[in-house]
Amino acid sequence: MKVCPINALARGLFVQYDHHATFASSSWPMFYYLFACLLLWIGMTIYLVANSRRISHLRDCDAAMARTPAVDIVVAMRNEENDVEQALSSLTRMRYPGYRIVVVNDRSTDRTPQILERLAQTLPIIVHTVQELPPGWLGKNHALYQGFLASQAEWLLFTDADIVFHPETLSKAMAVVQRQQLDHLTALPHVRSRSALLNRVLSTFAVMLELKVRPWAVRNPKSKAAFGVGAFNLVRRSVYAQAAAVPALRMRPDDDLKLGEFIKAAGFRQDVVNGEGMVQLEWYRNLREFIDGLMKNTFAVSNYNPVLATAGAMAALLIFCLPVPLGLLWPDDACRVLGAAILLCQVLIVALRPGDGKWNGGLMWFAGGLMAWIIVKSMVITLWQGGIWWRGSFYGLKELKGR
């Protein structure tokens, strides 16, 4: 009689001692769940570690180029009095000839307008002020579009007000787009936080994001993988003009991702680089800000579909969160071994990727549960209030869906 290899392994792990045999029969469902999770985690670890190394590091790219096309850097800001000076100072130190900085002040109510007025006297920036938000636009999306209208260059770099750039960032990026004949280049920023706990959560967020969007496959024209990051979207002017004409993109909280998807779907050439050491930001200062910040756009990633959002939350819970605590706390040695092995995979999937803290994966089970909760809470709040609040403005769900 043939014996199933998995059953044979399971029996070997469970029935180590005679006095465990009685309990083992009630642990089979848990064992199979943990065993399946371990196989999945081994596969994901190998897959992600191998593919993440295919993403080029911008800092290692040669800055030499045949010509230097004109570039306008477009920065939209609203109530950024704490970050505006540092961000604009780094932009003005770029080692690239003839670029311009277009700053869009989007209805700021703090000291941002006064700071911009003072900086404009000493820095080479052009300030465009938005007084009112027209219907059919999210505030930031409209501000970026106004920056596009105020620009003139062949290439546009869209970025955020809290980004700090290395002086060689633009020259290296422009060299990449010319060598690869790209229409759009986005960079994965080095995201830092003063909170050690948030840094660990951000590592899990990065793992989830890369598994979903597969940034290493973006350069392949046959792949459906597409990507865009608000911190660094370098795009050809003619290409952005086509995207800006699409009404559906105007109401997307995840406009950076959707811009990348439109560019790829339209047949333009796109790639992703690792911006560690070249593009840096403190996304959120602490865990509370991170949770509050994701409330407005997490449900949008599921296209406001409750079924997709619930499926995403369940995947985060069943794959990232529950296996480790259930395995380690389950009163059986075999399950504890599986739980420890899954924890090891979670540590390795972060430690072996470029840029992350080596031990940040140790709390992936916590971060997975947190992400599941954020997905569910974002969905419930958006459905309950019929839309989202973003920077003092309310946007209805029908409007967000483009209906």
UniProtKB/TrEMBL annotation:
Cleavable signal peptide: none
Residues that span the membrane, as ranges: 30-50, 307-330, 336-352, 364-384
Pfam family of the protein (one): Glycos_transf_2
GO MF annotation: an example: transferase activity
UniProt key word tRNA-binding: no
CDD domains named in the record: Glyco_tranf_GTA_type
PANTHER family: GLYCOSYLTRANSFERASE (PTHR43646), SLR1566 PROTEIN (PTHR43646:SF3)
Protein known as: Glycosyltransferase
